Amino acid sequence: MAGYVGKRLLLLVPTLLGVSVLTFLLIHLIPGDLVTILLGITASQNEQTRQALIHALHLDQPLIVQYVLWLGDVLRGDLGHSLVTGFSVRDELVRSYPVTLQLALMAMFIALAVGIPLGVLAATRAGRALDASTRVFSLLFISAPAFFIGTVVIIAGARYAPWLPTLGHVPFTENPIRSVLGLLPASASLGLAISAIVARFTRSSMLDVLGQDFVRTARAKGVADRVVVFKHALRNALIPVVAMAGTQFVYLIGGAVIIEEVFALPGMGRLVVNAIYQRDYTTIQGAVLLLTSGAVLVNLALDLLYHVIDRRILYA
Amino acid sequence: MSNQPDARRGGLPRALRSGSLLAGGLLVAGLLVAALAAPWLAPHAPTTIFPGAEITPPGPRFLLGTDEVGRDILSRVLYGARVSLGVAIPSVALAVLAGTTLGVGLGYWGGAPDLLAMRLFDVLFAFPPILLAIALVAALGPSTFNLVLTIAVLTLPQFAVLARSATLALKPQEFVQAARALGASHPRILGAHVLPNLTPTLAVQASLSLSIVILVEAALSFLGLGTQPPAPSWGSMLSRGRQYMTIAPWLVLAPGLAIMLAVLGFNLLGDAQRDLLDPRRAAAGRRTP
């Protein structure tokens, strides 16, 4: 076990390094003279400003040196300054990241809380009307973009429940209950799409386990059906669901960025979208780096959890 | 093998699965017809403005109503199929061609390039796809060409990994070894023996990728980074309609449902293809953007 954890942690290093290289190169994909584009036509006329930016981004150095210097800054927690506002990118990220993380985690919770019971119901009634309607529900929600579900939620709320207060976002540390309530519509819109995938996965995983010998033995010796389903089958069926949830987290982070735009939440999504409109490339770079490394770490954590739950897996 | 009844699955889902081929086929066919025949099907041009008819509710004159500047929404939704498929089909075609060539080559010859490419793909898979797409389009500048290129680059690794692992599995098999012993050239082995065996798997992945790519294009256009106005992209129609959504919900419902039906069509088609290929495999977790 310890060997496996060590191996996974060691593999983390090349992955994160690769992520940092690609993120670093992003800024060099911009066609044209980098300094002029970064500063805008007017500001780039000023030689002093030009030199300041060239110095700040080490643009006078070879690419590999630029990367090493940039990585050194990043590892010290310095992500540079916004090209538009001049504020520290790190401070902006520290302000926005908790919103996105909370949104993604709540969405994941909703996805599991809705998807697992639906999948279990569908599996225990395989072939009947409930199974079929779960399948239709899954297909519809897999196909609907989260930003459309979110928009419909807002329209429906305004039309059928106009008395609902429009909850602005409150930081979790300030008032946890209001914070969770405020993010509920956005995280539900995001989570329902994933819950459809969780439901289908749980269903097939449950069917696999329900067909195994130990379940038949339990049934043969007269264990109640409810106990067989929940104690014997569900526990084993949930293991692959945990692993699957880890792979979905990357998509949840991406979805959170877009859903924030729909619900006007002050998270990473708004930061990135505004940065793009203002061509604020250092902010984009920092945001991409943080969101991706965060997703890699969560994925790793869930993978390790999966191995803790399932001791049968060989640590090759 | 394929006709063996599966005791765990009753009659209804099985009927639904064959129904999914029909439903998926119909939806995709409808989408293709809308894209190809938009000029003849649409009552108006997508950019024609009817002054004084702004935000008209659905009715006999405008079947799906009009938008905030007085354009016919039905016509815009029909032409929107053109925009959506105009990005999705070339980008997936590019990804299939480049990804398969790369994957087959890596699997067949292996060695250092294979190791390097697999590490690179691992890194690419670490990025949330939509975030990488946003960042790439932001760096390159929003245009249809850049959009196709970006989406193709993001979709390519899936085909490369799939083709690589299938090639690795085929390579040691007797018919491939026999062809080699008979002195067949490498291109002949790959073209005549490896590629035909990959086609069904790649076809399933292509259907599923099309559904994902339509979602990505819609999401990017929704953020204003995809297809630029006044082209009738579903994503940007939905985004602009949000300003009026509480008084005129048809502005967002029409393009939103169009995206959903298009994605649903390719999803159903992909599922049906997969069931035809491997009837015993239960439909399991899928990646979404």
Radius of gyration of chain A: 24 Å
Q: Which runs of chain B of at least 5 residues are low in confidence (pLDDT < 50)?
A: 1-12, 280-289
Biggest interface, and residues per chain?
A-B, 67 and 58 residues
Number of helices of chain A: 12
Give the proportion of residues in helices of chain A: over 70%
The helix fraction of chain B, in percent, is over 70%
- How many β-strand runs of chain B? 0
Number of strands of chain A: 0
The main sheet of chain B comes to:
none
What order do the helices and strands of chain B follow? Answer: HHHHHHHHH
Task: Offer a concise description of the structure.
The complex is a heterodimer of chains A (316) and B (289). Chain A is mainly α. Chain A has helices at 2-26, 34-39, 47-56, 63-75, 89-124, 129-143, 146-160, 176-210, 213-220, 225-263, 268-277, 281-309.
Features:
heterodimer; A: 316 residues; mainly alpha; 12 helices; 76% helix; 0% strand; B: 289 residues; 9 helices; elongated
Descriptive account of the structure:
- The complex is a heterodimer of chains A (about 325) and B (about 290).
- By secondary structure, chain A is mostly helical.
- Chain A has helices spanning about 1-25, 35-40, 45-55, 65-75, 90-125, 130-145, 145-160, 175-210, 215-220, 225-265, 270-275, 280-310.
- The relative contact order of chain A is 0.14.
- Helix content of chain B is about 70%, strand content about 0%.
